[in-house]
């Protein structure tokens, strides 16, 4: 879709909402979602939050009621220097910065010496990290992906105004609210009886429908939808088996599934257990849908719809326990300028 | 307390638990806590979790029932390069690593070029971070502080065995389970009618009791206790007013309050809104209690009791809304080797 | 000077050289320098080297003949995490990355184990550095400073084309040739009988002339001119006395001295013992000379003339030994994209 | 050789020097070198310099006289994020820290604004580097390699005393003096008529002798010996062809050649054009010579002899021009704690 065309469409959509949609949206308990178009740039010109604006006290309370058993599933994958990562990001190192032995030898801080009272030898560890804001279990912020020759992201924030030296200055990760919402895991690999989907497999709408039917659960407006390919089962201790992970990491949803989830079902956020959610390489028609792109589903969700993406969410224990519906609770770190929550541990509470 | 003495005491404590305590502990719904001694190294020689082992499905379910209104309070303070931090940690930088403009100019990745199909100019932001594992809103892991000439930490893990080049190898942050527990905020500053406690103010047991009485709420075994000094109100956008923050940051609990919370009330974790929870400088008797230390409450809680510490937890909105009891939900990042959750956003769900 | 005006002037300069200057320039052994205008963008549209193009085998051989005694003066100032630096650059950390103890404990590399033959316990230290390309003893590359609304640097390379994600892509530090040239130290502080020049002192042409006269040495075309303020004497072990260094660091040359050195004397590079060579704050007329700038001498030298700048060059031992003429030998690190040689040790060979 | 045995031998060597060696050593213009044993820990218990202590004004002057033509050969290999490196070191990133566009957008420094006089739009580039102290063209400092269960390095400095949190505290890179010495390139690949030596090829004494004979030049006491394998010819722009470089990178000298160069010829420093100078894997007898080691020649040179090692020195242009004797001039960066000069540009002046 051309940029101009999209804007017209969005403008039309806004008008539609203003005049006609409220009834339907309220039916679904939604503020702005409209079946058939989803969201878009519908939250005003200053908005940096997107579809997560739909959360309310009522929706959070309803989500938390799903956690009546008090079981907590940690969806995070542990990260270290050897972990699998996308080549467009920087490598990472965790370095022991201060060590008990180093503090003792260095004697650079007077309060650590026995002479000044530290006769019990209190010392500490701390680590310096050189790390990407996009590794292991992530939530992509709305500023992560830009599109168009004008390098705009969600809500028309543009690089020539809002890309700074210390990260982005609009829709950075600190604008992602704490996410407390109904979560639904769609176990596509499980429904197909596979350990993990094969390389380059496109998850279709039919796949999602079949899995949901088998699970007897549905995606309703405002749900965080988690799509399982099975890739995370090969992560192990630290994601060091790059070949095996890479083999399955290219499976994912195409544009049709993304649009169905957002426009027909009202998924407020979509996550998967791969590094990039979407099938790779993109289907030519999907690429053309956004005017030519190596990551069209990202453009569609993050830029055009304002829908956050979850990546490398570990659903293996959910799958083993056949847990398909839960309270999804996730917060990113509060680091200004960064564009994604990195090495996170979202929770599925049941 | 001498190390040997402490071990004897702990051994005695373990024996006591084994033979006599279960009844009382079970009364409080606790597995190992014993009124009068708290915890200690009571979870077996391989344990890296400490007091948080007390969490159960039942305790989490009970905690989550406190969130019936669905209100979410974000306790995190936003971090950037100018934020206040303890001088023992490294400074931080968030650097725009890949930028839309840079990707376009650099042309180092073929899939980003129009020739290879990216005619819609999809590009991205990512940030490289050089950051400490101990900044802004933190949860100190049990390996953070060491003590004794043998540089041991919780459960007798020692530096000469378990301090590695890539962080610690026992009780790192990945061993902190997702924390879902009853939280109680003890608003000491509020009870005293102060914006924030003055420099070097020691919060006493009487202060805690008075605040709890005024709030009509109690700390029960398994509670996460959050003690408010008011310091976080001066954090602002990014904690850049070092002088003002520093002025109040030295207020905190002393050993008496720490022991009362753990040994008498069963607080499973203690947090505050300062960089280090405890009053600075430490009272001489508190320092001597652990054999001489610049941070005796840290030694007592992390090393001796296995009780995690929360720092720079922002309770300003809780205080404004007079919310004193809630579900506390926090996860650290899953970064192997690191010793604290950094720049976190714990939640108080109400 | 307006950008357009400067271009015309430069164009005029080039024309002048092409038709009339060769005789005079050759007289001085120079290829392109012209008394009265200096250099400029005279080396062709692809040039990234600037005035250092003047070096030849003959000029290097002549310079090295000044080192007949074989004495070597190290002009570098040692850098560590506490060193004084300009606030526009990132702080630095040197971190022990691999340590003998860590290698032994970590056992992550099989060849380090006794089982695989390392019975003699060979291990190693290496450090990871997080460092700026602009600290301690520096040589500013021609891409360091940009000017004009079009963000151009030397030879009209512009940010919108040549600033990449991994540093600059034109005139980075790898394009600075090894510098082997006649060096002359102009001891302004010494001539005035001062330990160091006072804050904000502007070094004038008269100051330079007086010092050179007292030293009985002259700046000739192709010389590297080192101007001594005395600031480096307060660097000590690691430049940690920021107040004392900062007090003198604002002394330096103004536009008149810079122009005299380049246009009248043919200095091929200018260095000093401060962080920024030029007097701060800049004189209003100097700022206006380049259209309004906080660093007009940098703009004049780096952008307009193609003359490299040396900073924090330690001349204390040269001054003590009254060594005023020598072979100046310096190489930067060969790190692509960086814009300055950092923590260097240039040599004065005598 | 066992540690105790070596110490006795060294003690014997010191005695021998004290009573008998001076005549022979002075004959060669050396202070402490003794034919048959080389150096060792002969410079006193506080020494951090090693064999480079041999340099004098006279030796430097003599070396510089070799540069009569004034030709400068840059021996450095350019480094970037894609460069070949040893897996024991951290990866590197050069990041544009401040950019003209970012400075303009960020407006975080008042002096950069037009309101405060910067009407000419002066801005700047600087880079933040995350880099190893051991990449591209290096000089290994004497603290780089440790040996023995006590983790000692040159002159018996031990990790339990002198390894700090911010690098090593004895014999770091700042203790390496500026190196100005006679250099001799030994073109083993050239003498054999090969582009580059094959994988795992051990350069023998006979190889060195044959090449020196063909070149009609000799290694004399105090010489920096550069041994050419031809590997650097595959470095290209940035050392990104890891497979091709790796194929030749394992060729190098064994213990016999190392000992011959140091003990018989008096080479004061030995360099090559590979990442590690010595043949890999080490010959079993070489490994046993130091009690079992994956890097026995490093142990012999750095730890036992106090002889610095040069790595990835690019000799391709020297070879093309058949330049075998020259003044070798190299300085490392002055960064406290680091153990090697990194991404250097040593010079061969002719």
UniProtKB/TrEMBL annotation, chains A, B, C, D:
Gene3D superfamilies: Putative cyclase. Transmembrane segments: none annotated. Residues 1-25 form the signal peptide. Keywords: Signal. Pfam families: Cyclase. InterPro entries: KFase/CYL, KFase_sf. This is Cyclase family protein. It comes from Craurococcus roseus.
């Amino acid at each position: 879709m051309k940029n101009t065309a999209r804007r017209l469409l969005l403008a039309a959509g806004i008008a539609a909402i203003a005049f006609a949609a409220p009834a339907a949206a309220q039916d679904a308990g939604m503020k702005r979602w409209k079946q058939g178009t989803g969201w878009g740039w519908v939250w005003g010109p200053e908005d940096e939050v997107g579809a997560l604006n739909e959360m309310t006290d009522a929706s959070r309370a309803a989500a938390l009621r799903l956690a009546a058993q008090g079981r907590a599933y940690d969806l995070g994958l542990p990260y270290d220097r050897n972990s699998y990562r996308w080549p467009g990001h920087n490598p990472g190192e965790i370095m022991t910065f201060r060590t008990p032995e180093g503090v003792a030898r260095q004697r650079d801080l007077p309060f650590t010496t026995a002479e000044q009272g530290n006769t019990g030898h209190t010392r500490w560890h701390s680590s310096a990290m050189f790390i990407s804001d996009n590794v292991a279990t992530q939530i992509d912020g709305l500023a992560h992906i830009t599109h168009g020759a004008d390098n705009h992201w969600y809500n028309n924030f543009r690089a020539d105004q809002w890309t700074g030296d210390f990260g982005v200055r609009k829709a950075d990760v600190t604008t992602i609210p704490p996410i407390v919402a109904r979560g639904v895991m769609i176990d596509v690999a499980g429904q197909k009886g596979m350990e993990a989907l094969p390389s380059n497999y496109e998850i279709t709408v039919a796949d999602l429908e079949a899995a949901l039917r088998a699970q007897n659960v549905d995606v309703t407006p405002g749900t965080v939808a988690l799509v399982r390919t099975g890739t995370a089962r090969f992560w192990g201790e630290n994601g060091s088996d790059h070949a095996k992970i890479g083999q399955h990491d290219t499976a994912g949803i195409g544009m049709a599934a993304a649009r169905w989830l957002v426009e027909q079902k009202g998924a407020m956020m979509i996550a998967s257990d791969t590094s990039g959610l979407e099938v790779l390489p993109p289907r030519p028609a999907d690429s053309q849908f956004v005017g030519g792109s190596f990551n069209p589903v990202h453009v569609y969700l993050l830029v055009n719809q304002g829908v956050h993406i979850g990546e490398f969410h570990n659903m293996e224990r959910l799958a083993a326990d056949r847990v398909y519906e839960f309270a999804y609770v996730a917060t990113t770190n509060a680091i200004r300028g960064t564009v994604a929550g990195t090495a996170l541990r979202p929770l599925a509470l049941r």
